Amino acid sequence: MSIFADIQQTFTRRDNALNQLLVINVLVFALLVVMRAVLHLSSVGDAYEVVLRQLAMPSDLPNLIRHPWTVLTYAFTHDGFFHILFNMLNLYWFGMLVREYLGDRRLVSLYILGALVGALFFVLSYNLVPVLRPGLGVPMLGASGAVTAVIVAAATLLPDYTFSLLLIGPVRIKYIAAAVVLISIAGINGTNPGGQIAHLGGAVLGFVYINQLQRGRDLGRPVIAVGEWINGLLHGRPRLRVTHRSPQANAAGSKRGGLAQPPQEEIDLILDKISRSGYESLSKDEKQKLFRASQK
After folding, report:
1. What are the CA-CA distances from residue 271 to residues 160, 170, 259, 265 (Å)?
2. Which residues, including other chains, have CB under 8 Å from residue 63's CB and lie 6 or more apart?
3. Is 165 helix (H, G, I), strand (E, B) or coil?
4. What residue segments make up the domains of the chain, in order of their start?
5. Is residue 174 classed as helix, strand or coil in its secondary structure?
6. pTM exceeds 0.70
7. In this structure, are strands 169-172 and 162-165 parallel, antiparallel, or unpaired?
8. How far from each other are the two terminal CA atoms of the chain, in whole angstroms?
9. Do 54 and 76 form a contact (C-beta atoms < 8 A)?
10. How many C-beta neighbours within 10 Å does residue 25 have?
11. Rounded to an integer, what distance in angstroms lies between the CA atom of residue 290 and that of residue 215?
12. Intervals of the chain under pLDDT 50
Protein backbone atom coordinates (compact mmCIF):
# COMPACT_ATOMS: atom_id res chain seq x y z
CA MET A 1 0.00 0.00 0.00
CA SER A 2 1.40 3.42 -0.98
CA ILE A 3 2.00 6.29 1.41
CA PHE A 4 -0.83 8.25 -0.21
CA ALA A 5 -3.22 5.33 0.28
CA ASP A 6 -2.19 5.12 3.95
CA ILE A 7 -2.86 8.83 4.41
CA GLN A 8 -6.23 8.54 2.68
CA GLN A 9 -7.16 5.61 4.92
CA THR A 10 -6.20 7.64 8.00
CA PHE A 11 -8.77 10.30 7.12
CA THR A 12 -11.51 7.94 5.96
CA ARG A 13 -11.50 5.74 9.07
CA ARG A 14 -13.87 6.67 11.85
CA ASP A 15 -12.70 7.14 15.44
CA ASN A 16 -9.18 7.97 14.28
CA ALA A 17 -8.80 11.56 15.47
CA LEU A 18 -5.44 11.12 17.20
CA ASN A 19 -3.76 9.73 14.09
CA GLN A 20 -5.38 12.44 11.99
CA LEU A 21 -3.95 15.18 14.22
CA LEU A 22 -0.53 13.56 14.04
CA VAL A 23 -0.66 13.16 10.26
CA ILE A 24 -1.80 16.76 9.67
CA ASN A 25 1.13 18.08 11.70
CA VAL A 26 3.61 15.79 9.94
CA LEU A 27 2.25 16.58 6.47
CA VAL A 28 2.49 20.34 7.04
CA PHE A 29 6.05 19.93 8.33
CA ALA A 30 7.06 17.73 5.38
CA LEU A 31 5.55 20.13 2.84
CA LEU A 32 7.40 23.06 4.42
CA VAL A 33 10.69 21.14 4.39
CA VAL A 34 10.30 20.30 0.68
CA MET A 35 9.19 23.83 -0.15
CA ARG A 36 12.14 25.34 1.70
CA ALA A 37 14.60 23.12 -0.18
CA VAL A 38 13.03 23.87 -3.58
CA LEU A 39 12.95 27.63 -2.94
CA HIS A 40 16.55 27.57 -1.74
CA LEU A 41 17.71 25.76 -4.88
CA SER A 42 15.70 28.24 -6.94
CA SER A 43 17.57 31.15 -5.31
CA VAL A 44 14.33 32.53 -3.86
CA GLY A 45 14.86 31.37 -0.28
CA ASP A 46 13.27 34.57 1.06
CA ALA A 47 9.93 33.38 -0.32
CA TYR A 48 9.88 30.68 2.36
CA GLU A 49 9.64 33.31 5.08
CA VAL A 50 6.70 34.84 3.25
CA VAL A 51 4.94 31.47 3.24
CA LEU A 52 5.74 30.87 6.90
CA ARG A 53 4.23 34.24 7.85
CA GLN A 54 0.92 33.04 6.43
CA LEU A 55 0.88 30.17 8.94
CA ALA A 56 2.63 31.53 12.05
CA MET A 57 0.58 33.67 14.43
CA PRO A 58 1.83 37.25 14.90
CA SER A 59 1.79 38.88 18.33
CA ASP A 60 0.87 42.39 17.11
CA LEU A 61 -2.86 42.99 16.72
CA PRO A 62 -2.85 44.82 13.32
CA ASN A 63 -0.99 41.95 11.69
CA LEU A 64 -3.15 39.37 13.46
CA ILE A 65 -6.33 41.06 12.20
CA ARG A 66 -4.99 40.74 8.65
CA HIS A 67 -4.18 37.04 9.25
CA PRO A 68 -6.97 35.74 11.53
CA TRP A 69 -6.63 32.13 10.35
CA THR A 70 -3.22 31.93 12.04
CA VAL A 71 -4.87 31.49 15.47
CA LEU A 72 -5.27 27.85 14.37
CA THR A 73 -2.72 27.26 11.61
CA TYR A 74 0.18 28.04 13.94
CA ALA A 75 -0.75 24.98 16.03
CA PHE A 76 -0.15 22.67 13.05
CA THR A 77 3.07 24.32 11.86
CA HIS A 78 6.62 23.44 12.96
CA ASP A 79 9.95 24.72 11.74
CA GLY A 80 12.35 22.30 13.42
CA PHE A 81 12.73 18.50 13.54
CA PHE A 82 13.09 18.16 17.32
CA HIS A 83 10.29 20.65 17.88
CA ILE A 84 7.78 18.51 16.00
CA LEU A 85 9.28 15.24 17.28
CA PHE A 86 8.75 16.01 20.96
CA ASN A 87 5.35 17.60 20.36
CA MET A 88 4.08 14.58 18.41
CA LEU A 89 5.46 12.08 20.92
CA ASN A 90 3.71 13.87 23.77
CA LEU A 91 0.52 14.21 21.74
CA TYR A 92 0.56 10.48 21.01
CA TRP A 93 1.31 9.33 24.57
CA PHE A 94 -1.10 11.60 26.38
CA GLY A 95 -3.62 11.82 23.55
CA MET A 96 -4.07 8.05 23.70
CA LEU A 97 -5.29 8.38 27.29
CA VAL A 98 -7.68 11.23 26.55
CA ARG A 99 -9.03 9.45 23.49
CA GLU A 100 -9.45 6.16 25.33
CA TYR A 101 -11.47 7.66 28.17
CA LEU A 102 -13.23 10.61 26.54
CA GLY A 103 -13.38 9.73 22.85
CA ASP A 104 -12.12 11.23 19.62
CA ARG A 105 -14.31 14.32 19.50
CA ARG A 106 -13.31 15.52 22.93
CA LEU A 107 -9.63 14.97 22.07
CA VAL A 108 -10.00 17.21 19.01
CA SER A 109 -11.94 19.79 21.05
CA LEU A 110 -9.21 19.81 23.67
CA TYR A 111 -6.48 20.28 21.04
CA ILE A 112 -8.32 23.13 19.30
CA LEU A 113 -9.29 24.89 22.53
CA GLY A 114 -5.75 24.51 23.85
CA ALA A 115 -4.42 26.14 20.69
CA LEU A 116 -6.91 29.02 20.94
CA VAL A 117 -6.30 29.72 24.62
CA GLY A 118 -2.55 29.45 24.08
CA ALA A 119 -2.87 32.00 21.28
CA LEU A 120 -4.88 34.29 23.56
CA PHE A 121 -2.25 34.14 26.31
CA PHE A 122 0.49 34.78 23.74
CA VAL A 123 -1.16 37.88 22.26
CA LEU A 124 -2.18 39.31 25.63
CA SER A 125 1.30 38.85 27.08
CA TYR A 126 3.03 40.81 24.32
CA ASN A 127 0.40 43.56 24.28
CA LEU A 128 -0.16 43.98 28.03
CA VAL A 129 3.08 43.01 29.81
CA PRO A 130 5.49 45.99 29.62
CA VAL A 131 8.68 43.93 29.75
CA LEU A 132 7.59 41.96 26.67
CA ARG A 133 6.44 44.90 24.55
CA PRO A 134 9.87 45.41 22.90
CA GLY A 135 9.34 42.00 21.29
CA LEU A 136 5.89 42.88 19.93
CA GLY A 137 5.56 41.45 16.43
CA VAL A 138 7.35 38.18 17.18
CA PRO A 139 5.41 35.30 15.59
CA MET A 140 4.56 31.96 17.19
CA LEU A 141 4.28 28.52 15.65
CA GLY A 142 4.12 24.96 16.92
CA ALA A 143 1.60 22.68 18.63
CA SER A 144 3.14 23.05 22.10
CA GLY A 145 0.22 25.00 23.59
CA ALA A 146 -2.34 22.50 22.30
CA VAL A 147 -0.18 19.54 23.35
CA THR A 148 0.32 21.00 26.83
CA ALA A 149 -3.47 21.20 27.11
CA VAL A 150 -3.67 17.49 26.30
CA ILE A 151 -0.91 16.64 28.80
CA VAL A 152 -2.51 18.55 31.68
CA ALA A 153 -5.97 17.26 30.77
CA ALA A 154 -4.74 13.66 30.88
CA ALA A 155 -3.05 14.29 34.24
CA THR A 156 -6.21 15.91 35.62
CA LEU A 157 -8.30 13.04 34.31
CA LEU A 158 -6.02 10.21 35.50
CA PRO A 159 -3.46 11.71 37.90
CA ASP A 160 -2.12 8.38 39.18
CA TYR A 161 -1.72 6.72 35.77
CA THR A 162 1.95 5.81 35.29
CA PHE A 163 4.31 5.98 32.33
CA SER A 164 7.57 4.04 32.33
CA LEU A 165 10.29 6.55 31.46
CA LEU A 166 13.68 5.53 30.15
CA LEU A 167 16.35 5.52 32.91
CA ILE A 168 13.76 6.62 35.47
CA GLY A 169 11.09 3.94 35.59
CA PRO A 170 7.38 4.33 36.45
CA VAL A 171 6.28 7.93 36.97
CA ARG A 172 2.75 9.15 37.65
CA ILE A 173 1.61 11.47 34.91
CA LYS A 174 0.57 14.18 37.38
CA TYR A 175 4.29 14.66 38.10
CA ILE A 176 5.11 14.72 34.39
CA ALA A 177 2.48 17.42 33.86
CA ALA A 178 3.80 19.38 36.84
CA ALA A 179 7.31 19.23 35.37
CA VAL A 180 6.04 20.45 31.99
CA VAL A 181 4.33 23.43 33.64
CA LEU A 182 7.40 24.28 35.74
CA ILE A 183 9.67 24.11 32.70
CA SER A 184 7.35 26.54 30.89
CA ILE A 185 7.37 28.93 33.85
CA ALA A 186 11.18 28.78 34.01
CA GLY A 187 11.37 29.39 30.24
CA ILE A 188 9.65 32.77 30.55
CA ASN A 189 13.08 34.16 31.46
CA GLY A 190 14.55 32.77 28.23
CA THR A 191 14.52 33.69 24.56
CA ASN A 192 10.91 32.65 23.90
CA PRO A 193 8.79 34.06 26.74
CA GLY A 194 5.63 34.40 24.68
CA GLY A 195 5.77 30.77 23.59
CA GLN A 196 6.21 29.61 27.18
CA ILE A 197 3.24 31.73 28.26
CA ALA A 198 1.21 30.09 25.48
CA HIS A 199 2.13 26.70 26.99
CA LEU A 200 0.74 27.89 30.31
CA GLY A 201 -2.45 28.98 28.55
CA GLY A 202 -2.81 25.48 27.19
CA ALA A 203 -2.16 24.04 30.66
CA VAL A 204 -4.90 26.21 32.18
CA LEU A 205 -7.33 25.12 29.47
CA GLY A 206 -6.51 21.44 29.95
CA PHE A 207 -7.19 21.62 33.68
CA VAL A 208 -10.38 23.70 33.34
CA TYR A 209 -11.69 21.51 30.51
CA ILE A 210 -11.55 18.31 32.56
CA ASN A 211 -12.72 20.04 35.73
CA GLN A 212 -15.79 21.39 33.95
CA LEU A 213 -16.43 18.11 32.16
CA GLN A 214 -16.54 16.32 35.49
CA ARG A 215 -19.07 18.92 36.65
CA GLY A 216 -21.27 18.20 33.64
CA ARG A 217 -20.19 21.05 31.32
CA ASP A 218 -18.52 20.18 28.02
CA LEU A 219 -16.56 23.26 26.92
CA GLY A 220 -15.81 21.57 23.62
CA ARG A 221 -19.41 21.41 22.39
CA PRO A 222 -19.03 24.52 20.14
CA VAL A 223 -15.94 22.96 18.53
CA ILE A 224 -17.83 19.72 17.93
CA ALA A 225 -20.79 21.64 16.48
CA VAL A 226 -18.52 23.53 14.05
CA GLY A 227 -16.86 20.26 13.05
CA GLU A 228 -20.22 18.66 12.31
CA TRP A 229 -21.30 21.71 10.30
CA ILE A 230 -18.11 21.55 8.19
CA ASN A 231 -18.57 17.81 7.74
CA GLY A 232 -22.12 18.44 6.53
CA LEU A 233 -20.87 20.96 3.97
CA LEU A 234 -18.18 18.59 2.69
CA HIS A 235 -20.59 15.68 2.34
CA GLY A 236 -23.55 17.71 1.14
CA ARG A 237 -25.80 16.67 4.01
CA PRO A 238 -25.75 16.77 7.81
CA ARG A 239 -24.61 13.69 9.66
CA LEU A 240 -27.41 11.92 11.47
CA ARG A 241 -26.54 10.12 14.66
CA VAL A 242 -28.74 7.56 16.36
CA THR A 243 -27.97 6.90 20.01
CA HIS A 244 -29.43 4.04 22.00
CA ARG A 245 -29.53 4.52 25.75
CA SER A 246 -31.12 2.77 28.64
CA PRO A 247 -33.52 4.88 30.74
CA GLN A 248 -31.06 4.82 33.64
CA ALA A 249 -28.16 6.08 31.52
CA ASN A 250 -30.35 8.68 29.87
CA ALA A 251 -31.38 10.13 33.23
CA ALA A 252 -27.82 10.08 34.56
CA GLY A 253 -26.43 11.78 31.47
CA SER A 254 -28.79 14.72 31.45
CA LYS A 255 -26.34 17.16 33.04
CA ARG A 256 -25.70 19.69 30.25
CA GLY A 257 -23.68 17.45 27.94
CA GLY A 258 -21.38 16.07 30.64
CA LEU A 259 -20.29 12.50 31.27
CA ALA A 260 -23.32 10.21 31.21
CA GLN A 261 -23.35 7.69 34.05
CA PRO A 262 -23.77 4.05 32.97
CA PRO A 263 -26.20 1.82 34.90
CA GLN A 264 -24.86 -0.09 37.90
CA GLU A 265 -25.54 -3.45 36.22
CA GLU A 266 -23.03 -2.65 33.46
CA ILE A 267 -20.42 -1.51 35.98
CA ASP A 268 -20.81 -4.76 37.93
CA LEU A 269 -20.21 -6.77 34.76
CA ILE A 270 -17.12 -4.69 33.95
CA LEU A 271 -15.73 -5.18 37.47
CA ASP A 272 -16.33 -8.92 37.16
CA LYS A 273 -14.39 -8.91 33.90
CA ILE A 274 -11.49 -7.10 35.57
CA SER A 275 -11.38 -9.68 38.37
CA ARG A 276 -11.30 -12.50 35.81
CA SER A 277 -9.00 -11.10 33.10
CA GLY A 278 -7.46 -7.85 34.36
CA TYR A 279 -7.95 -4.22 33.43
CA GLU A 280 -6.20 -4.53 30.06
CA SER A 281 -8.88 -6.96 28.87
CA LEU A 282 -11.46 -4.14 28.84
CA SER A 283 -12.54 -2.59 25.58
CA LYS A 284 -12.28 1.15 24.96
CA ASP A 285 -16.03 1.54 25.57
CA GLU A 286 -15.84 -0.39 28.85
CA LYS A 287 -12.94 1.77 30.08
CA GLN A 288 -14.92 4.92 29.29
CA LYS A 289 -17.94 3.59 31.19
CA LEU A 290 -15.78 2.69 34.18
CA PHE A 291 -14.29 6.18 34.23
CA ARG A 292 -17.71 7.84 34.02
CA ALA A 293 -18.92 5.70 36.91
CA SER A 294 -15.97 6.87 39.01
CA GLN A 295 -17.21 10.46 38.66
CA LYS A 296 -20.42 9.84 40.64
Report:
1. 19, 25, 19, 10
2. 137
3. strand
4. 3-232, 243-294
5. helix
6. yes
7. antiparallel
8. 47
9. no
10. 22
11. 17
12. 238-256
The tens digit of pLDDT for each residue in 143-163 reads 999 999 999 999 999 999 999
Report the SS3 class of residue 274: helix
- In this predicted structure, what is the pLDDT of residue 279? 62
Q: Residue type for 134, please?
A: P
pLDDT of residue 5: 85
Asked whether 25 and 143 are in contact (CB, 8 A), the reply is: yes
Among 77, 33, 35, 37, which Cα is nearest to 55's? Answer: 77
Q: What is the pLDDT of residue 260?
A: 60
Strands (E), the chain: 162-165, 169-172
In contact, 162 and 172? CB cutoff 8 Å: yes
Q: What is the DSSP string of 99-164?
A: HHHH-HHHHHHHHHHHHHHHHHHHHHHHHH-GGGGGGTT--B-SSHHHHHHHHHHHHHHSTT-EEE
Contact partners, residue 220, CB within 8 Å, separation at least 6: 105, 106, 108, 109, 110, 112, 113, 209
The one-letter amino acid code at 67 reads H
The correct CATH number of 3-232 out of 3.20.20.80, 1.20.1540.10, 3.40.50.300, 3.30.43.10 is: 1.20.1540.10
Task: Classify residue 13 by burial, with Cβ atoms within 10 Å: 0-12, 13-18, 19+.
Answer: exposed
